Amino acid sequence: MKNFIKEWGLFLLFMSLFILSYIFVWVNVKVDGHSMDPTLADGERLFVVKVAKIDRFDIVVAQEDDKKIVKRVIGMPGDTISYDNDVLTVNGEVVEETYLNTYKAAFAKDKLQATYSYNKLFQELAMSANAFTTDTQGNTSFSITVPEGQYFLLGDDRIVSQDSRAVGTFAADDIIGEVKFRFWPLADFGTIHDK
Fold first, then answer.
1. What is the dihedral of CA 34, 40, 46, 51, to 10 degrees?
2. How confident is residue 79, by pLDDT bands cut at 50, 70 and 90?
3. Domains: count for the chain
4. How far lies 161's CA from each of 111, 164, 186, in Å?
């Protein structure tokens, strides 16, 4: 028994800690789709910290029905958020969304036609949009008050994202955790800058 512990003890301790941390502290997730372009790309692999405190503009993973989705927190519990021609107001204060600058500029230039050259449906959606961020009816001005205990989540690629505009807010229990680190592809290995 002593020899077994001497030879395998450290390995078993490491594996036990690894498994416990996977159960309680972190999980890995694969980005599925283009709703977080250009911040996160389809197929990227991420580490998600389950015990992180969720703040506005954090990128989170949430449970939606039987799938995990990656979105950005825009509205916190109790917030009133409004959009008016791509300008975000939170509780009466205008807030910049600098992470949208690349796609908003491309939308202003050619309605994202060059960006979406890989997908005809995306091009059609962009051509029919009157702003980069609209509600499900295409309105460029809309408001929502986020219920207590809920979060309003949006994808960074507002034209193609299915998010809280379509499916409603997400309960705190539906938020799995905050995206902290990208480990695949190796060329983009590193922390996620979400603000």
1. -100
2. very high
3. 1
4. 16, 9, 26
Per-residue pLDDT band at 157 (split at 50, 70, 90):
very high
Residue type, 28: N
CA distance 122 to 120: 5
What residue has token string 């309960």? 171
Q: Using CA atoms, how far apart are residues 89 and 157, in angstroms rounded to an integer?
A: 18
pTM: 0.86
Type of residue found at 48: V
Beta strand pairing call for 175-184 and 67-75: unpaired
Q: In percent, how much of the chain has pLDDT > 70?
A: 86
126 pLDDT more than 50: yes
pLDDT above 70 for 134: yes
Backbone angles phi, psi at 45, to 5 degrees: -110, 135
Residues assigned a catalytic role: 35, 71
φ and ψ of 9, to 5 deg: -55, -50
**CATH code of the domain containing 131:** 2.10.109.10
* Span 79-97, average pLDDT: 97
Secondary structure class of 180 (helix, strand, coil): strand
> Which residues constitute the domain of residue 127?
2-191
